[in-house]
C-alpha cells in the first residue's frame, strides 16, 4: 500500500467581479476563468510520487444537494452566529448537572437555550429509571429542536458517603451538637441527629479523636465515642448536611485512607451503571476517584467490546491524592479529565487546589485531552440570584486558563436559579475570552507532539500552522472536515482567535465535539473531494445566512491533509 501525504497551502482568490475582497488579500488583477485564479503554494511530503494528491481535478464530485437542511447545527449557535458574527461565539463549553431542579423537558430546553453543551447525570443520586427519563428527554430535545447536547454519566465510585437523610432535602448541624453516624440499616424513620453511612468498615476504621469532614469540610465533626456500629460525633464546624454527601476522616492533620484505598475505583454498582450507560448510548462516562491509568484502560476495552459502534469517551475525574500522583499517565489513558474540586479539596489542603487545577488544565492541553473545571464555581447561586465577586473571579480564572469546559453542580441540579447560573457562566466566559483576544495574550505554551505515527505528526503540524495562519491573517473562521473528530481537537488545542467550524459525518462525534474549546460542531455528509466539500458547505451555510461572500476562511481536512485559505465566493 502506498502512503501519501500532502500539505497544501493554497491561496484562493475569487474573481473580482461579484465578490468583495477581504482586506487581507490583494485584489486579483486579471479576470480569468475560475481555476486560473487559484494561486496555490503547495508543500508536499510524500512517500510515493504516483499518489501525489492532485489539484482536485480527478474524479468528478456529485453535484451539491440544494437542500439547505442537510447541514445540522444547533439553533442557539445558529442564532448567535447570525446576530453577532463569528467573533462573539462562546469558546468555553458549559456542562450542567441535571437534578430535581432541571429534569423536566421545559427546564432542560431552557438550559439548552441558555448554552448547555453537555448534560451530566450523577449516578450517586436518583434511580436508574429517573436517569433514563432524563436521557430520553435530552435525546428528544436534540431530535425535535436540533440541539446536540451530549450526555455525561458520572459514576458513584467507592467513596464513603452519608445516606439520603430519610427523604429530607437537607439537615442543619449546629455547633456542639452530638450526631450519630451509623452503618446500621434503619427499617423505619431515622432517629433524630442520626446519619446513615454506606461503608461497612466505617465504625471499625475511625478512632476517637479523628476529625470527620462532610462534603470536603463544609461541615466538620470530632469523633467522641464508638458504640458498636454507631459513632458519636460532636459538631465543630456547623453547616448544612446534604443527602449522600461524602465523608472523609482525618487523623493528626492528614487524611486516613488505608482502608478506603482498598475499595475498587469501579464498584459492582458502578459496573451496572456503566452497562446502563452503554445501552443508553451516553456520550461520556466520567469515572470518580480514579487512582491509576489501568482502570481507565480496562474500562475503555470493556466499552469497546460492548458497544461496537457507539464510541463513548471516558473522562477521568481527578479528585484524589493518587490521581494527582499518576496524573500524566491517567490523562494519557483517558479521553479527557475533570478537575473535581469538591472531593479534591477534601483530600488535599484547600490552598493546594488552585495550583492542582492549573497543572491539570495545562497537562490536558498538552496531551490534547478536553478538561472540565468543576464544583462550587457559583455555589452561592444555589440560594441567591447573584454570584459573589469571588465566584466570578474563580470562573474568570478557569476561562483564562483556557479550560475546555466549566461545570455547574448543585447550582443546576437542585439550586433555585439554574438558568441564571448558566447565564453567569456564559457572560463571564464571553467577556474573558474577548478580553484575551483584544489583549493578544498569546500564551507561550509549547504544544508537544502527541501522535505516535508520522501521519499523526503531519496532522498536528497542519493544525498548528493553520491556527497560526488564522491568527496572523485574522481570518473569520477555521473549517475542519473530520470523520473521527481528531483534527478538530488538534485545532481546538491551539486555542485560535477565530471559531472552528467542525464538520463531521456522525451525530455522536458531533455531540462529543461539543465538549471541546472553540469548536462549533456541524453534521454534514462529505466526500474525499475537498473542492466539492467546500463548495457545498459554502452554499449550505450561505443559504442559512451563517456565512457571507468575502468571509475569509482557513480550511483543513483529515482526508486530504491540506491547508487552504480562501474567501467565501
Ligand atoms: N439526580 C439527582 N437527584 C437528586 N439530587 C441530586 C441529583 N443530582 C444531584 N443532586 C443534588 O445536587 C447536589 C450537587 O450535585 P453533584 O452531582 O455535583 O453532587 P456531588 O454529590 O457533590 O458530586 P460527586 O458525588 O460527583 O462528587 C448533590 O449533592 C445532590 O444534593
Ligand atoms: C464533581 C465532583 O465529583 C467533585 O467535585 O467532587
Ligand atoms: K459522582
Ligand atoms: Mg466527587
UniProtKB/TrEMBL annotation:
Any single GO CC term annotated in Swiss-Prot or TrEMBL for this entry: chloroplast stroma
Stretches for region Disordered: 51-73
What reaction does this catalyse?
A: pyruvate + ATP = phosphoenolpyruvate + ADP + H(+)
**Record carries keyword Acetylation:** no
Domain called Pyruvate kinase C-terminal: residue spans:
460-559
Q: Cross-referenced InterPro entries, in alphabetical order?
A: Pyr_Knase (IPR001697), Pyrv/PenolPyrv_kinase-like_dom (IPR015813), Pyrv_kinase-like_dom_sf (IPR040442), Pyrv_Knase-like_insert_dom_sf (IPR011037), Pyrv_Knase_AS (IPR018209), Pyrv_Knase_brl (IPR015793), Pyrv_Knase_C (IPR015795), Pyrv_Knase_C_sf (IPR036918)
* Chief location: plastid
| Subcellular localization(s) per the UniProt record | Plastid, Chloroplast
Domain Pyruvate kinase barrel stretches: 90-421
Give cofactor(s), names only. Answer: K(+); Mg(2+)
* Keyword vocabulary terms for this entry: ATP-binding, Chloroplast, Glycolysis, Kinase, Magnesium, Metal-binding, Nucleotide-binding, Plastid, Potassium, Pyruvate, Transferase, Transit peptide
Q: In which pathway does it act?
A: Carbohydrate degradation; glycolysis; pyruvate from D-glyceraldehyde 3-phosphate: step 5/5
Provide the E.C. number(s) assigned to this enzyme: 2.7.1.40
Supply the NCBIfam families for this chain: pyruv_kin (TIGR01064)
Q: How does it assemble?
A: Oligomer of alpha and beta subunits.
| Protein family membership | Belongs to the pyruvate kinase family.
Name of this protein: Pyruvate kinase
Question: Which organism is the protein's source?
Answer: Glycine soja (Wild soybean)
Starting at the broadest rank, the lineage of the source organism is:
Eukaryota, Viridiplantae, Streptophyta, Embryophyta, Tracheophyta
